[in-house]
Design goal:
A hairpin with a 2-residue loop joins strand 4 and strand 5. The protein has two domains: 43 residues; 84 residues, Beta Barrel (OB fold (Dihydrolipoamide Acetyltransferase, E2P)). By secondary structure, the protein is of the alpha+beta class. It has a five-stranded mixed barrel with strand order 1-2-3-5-4. The protein is extended and about 80 Å long. 44% of the residues lie in helices and 27% in strands. It contains six helices and five strands, in the order ααβααββαββα.
Length: 166
């Protein structure tokens, strides 16, 4: 018996080592790509903060539609990357003075925007950053129904004496 036969790895060990190496390389690549994207997002957020202004506007309609179907000007559509044109965005049709235009907003802000009401909003370019003041009565946002998993987690937390997650 040769001493090299005892040290030869099996096929399963080789496959496991290759999968582990690919996983480690993918993790490292994703780390650096995420770091680069975080820097880009921070720069864009600073730019949005520098150009924000408060404007009174009448909200006509709001919906979640594909970017190219939202009604943005052709120049804006041409400037966006091709992958971003296919994704859905939160579009809000507003009337600012005599002009009707379509603006974009974040999903967190989208739920707080009332339809057919006059609001004071903080915008930067064509992006709604926040809704500051409402004119007239504001209707409470309807609570969404909790799913089966969320209800069961809350029941288990209640039985265990833990505080439910908000």
């Amino acid at each position: 018996m040769s001493p090299f036969l005892l040290l030869a790895p099996s096929a399963g060990t080789i496959i496991l080592i290759v999968i582990l190496a690919v996983f480690i390389i993918a993790t490292i690549v994703l780390y650096f790509v995420g770091k680069k994207m975080q820097k880009k997002q921070d720069e864009q957020q600073k730019l949005l903060e520098a150009n924000k202004q408060t404007i009174s506007m009448l909200i006509i309609d709001k919906k979640k539609v594909k970017f190219k179907d939202a009604g943005f000007p052709q120049a804006v559509i041409d400037q966006t990357p091709k992958m971003a044109r296919r994704m859905k965005v939160y579009a809000v049709k507003v009337k600012i003075g005599p002009q009707i235009m379509t603006l974009m907003c974040d999903d967190k802000i989208f739920d707080t925007i009332p339809v057919k009401k006059e609001v004071k909003a903080v915008i930067s370019g064509m992006y709604i950053m926040g809704v500051k003041g409402l004119h007239g009565k504001s209707e409470p946002i309807p609570q969404k129904k909790k799913g089966f998993f969320k209800r069961s987690v809350e029941k288990m937390q209640e039985k265990a004496g833990a505080k439910p997650l908000k």
